Structures are given as structure tokens and as C-alpha cells.
Amino acid sequence: MTETHDNRSRQPKIKRLYRLQWEEAQQAHVLLFPEGMVKLNGSAGEILRRCDGKRSAAEIIGELETAFETTGLGSDVDAFLNFAIEKGWIEWSET
Questions:
Q1: Helix, strand, coil: what percent of the chain each, to 5?
Q2: Are 33 and 83 a contacting pair, CB within 8 Å?
Q3: What is the per-residue pLDDT across 24-76, written as a single tens digit (0 to 9) for each?
């Protein structure tokens, strides 16, 4: 089992410095922070809006696969969560 799969039982949450919101003018989710804003693509917005510190990464993957009637999203979601951790947008909830 890889470290990425080990993280699937953990609950990602958006760091306090950031705020996720829908931006009507841009027709996209954005991540706001004191220094600016990141416009997210559809996939990133769908993943981040589920990062509430309560859902595990595995639950987020399951919800996305159900919502979009597909399978096999695990590696893409894992990759995005790792990217978001590296960017400092999210952290693992302390539960």
C-alpha cells in the first residue's frame, strides 16, 4: 500500500487561511486568501468543496464517483489532494 492510499482514511480540510466560494462572475469555484485568489477548474472545485475535515479521502472519492456516475477517480483525487497539500491549501484533520 502506498502512502497515498494510506491517506484515504484521513479527512482533508481547507486551511483556515483560505476560503472556498462559488464566484458567479467567473462561473467557477475560487479559493480566496489574503494575497489573492485561485480560480479552480471544475474538478478541483468539486474535490475542495468536499474537504470539510469530516469526510475521509475515500468518502470524497466515493461521492465523486457517484455524483459523476463513473469509477476509477481514486488516483486523480489522490494526486489533487497531494498537490493541494503541497500548495498549502489543505491539511489533514486532527481527529
A1: 45, 25, 35
A2: no
A3: 999 999 999 999 999 999 999 999 999 999 999 999 999 999 999 999 999 99
Round to whole Å and give the CA distance between 66 and 64.
Answer: 5
Residue where the block lists cell 497531494? 82
β-strand 90-92 against 28-33: which pairing, if any? unpaired
Other Cβ atoms closer than 10 A to 2: 7
pTM higher than 0.70, yes or no?
A: yes
CA distance linking residue 84 with residue 76, whole number of Å: 12
